[in-house]
Design goal:
By secondary structure, this protein is an all-alpha fold. The protein is built from two helices and no strands. 88% of the residues lie in helices and 0% in strands. α1 runs antiparallel to α2.
Length: 60
């Protein structure tokens, strides 16, 4: 793995984690329980990672 690929992967994981955190916080502030908010944030993180990996696999 080249350093550029590693940095791109870390950037994608960072963005996915931020998307999940914002989604979980928004869900919690809208009235869901903290446990459900964490599940919603986790699913948003997984979806963002899945979209990134699908785009990378389609590119190669």
């Amino acid at each position: 793995m080249t350093p550029l690929q590693l940095l791109a992967l870390l950037l994608a994981l960072s963005v996915a984690l931020h998307i999940g955190s914002v989604t979980a916080f928004a869900a919690w502030r809208s009235g869901t329980t903290p446990a459900k908010a964490i599940l919603i944030g986790g699913s948003a993180t997984g979806s963002a990672c899945g979209l990134y990996f699908a785009a990378v696999s389609a590119y190669h």
